[in-house]
């Protein structure tokens, strides 16, 4: 086997590997965008829940923050389900 033949085979392998990598990137980008959309949809809900909690004055600030944390954590879990 000559050196040129080896180089051509190596170059062909690298090109093939690069093409297969590029084929998977758009699917991952779409998954990340869907995941991001899930988190974005929850933001107004979280703001509203926090404002309602403070206006109602039924809970102290720590409890309101914990409620907000729980809602955001639920959104993160949904986001992971979409992404992975």
Description of the structure:
1% of the residues are buried. The chain is mainly α and 84 residues long. The protein has a domain at 26-83. It has helices at residues 3-56, 61-83. It is 92% helix and 0% strand. The protein contains two helices and no strands.
Oligomer type: single chain
Tell me the distance between the termini.
44 Å
Q: State mean pLDDT (0 to 100 scale).
A: 76
Name the shape in a single word. rod-shaped
Regions with pLDDT < 50 over 5+ consecutive residues? none
Helical percentage: over 70%
Q: What's the total helix number?
A: 2
- Which structural class best describes the helix and strand composition? mainly alpha
What string gives the helices and strands in order?
HH
**Number of strand elements:** 0
Q: What share of residues are in beta strands?
A: under 5%
Rg:
24 Å
| Sheet having the most strands | none
In short, what is this structure?
By secondary structure, the protein is mainly alpha-helical. Helices cover 92% and strands 0% of the residues.
């Amino acid at each position: 086997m000559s050196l040129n033949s080896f180089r051509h085979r190596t170059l062909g392998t690298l090109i093939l590997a690069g093409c297969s990598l590029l084929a998977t990137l758009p699917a991952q980008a779409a998954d990340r965008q869907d995941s991001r959309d899930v988190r974005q949809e929850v933001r107004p809900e979280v703001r509203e829940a926090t404002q309602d909690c403070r206006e109602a004055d039924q809970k102290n600030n720590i409890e309101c923050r914990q409620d907000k944390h729980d809602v955001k954590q639920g959104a993160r879990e949904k986001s992971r389900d979409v992404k992975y």
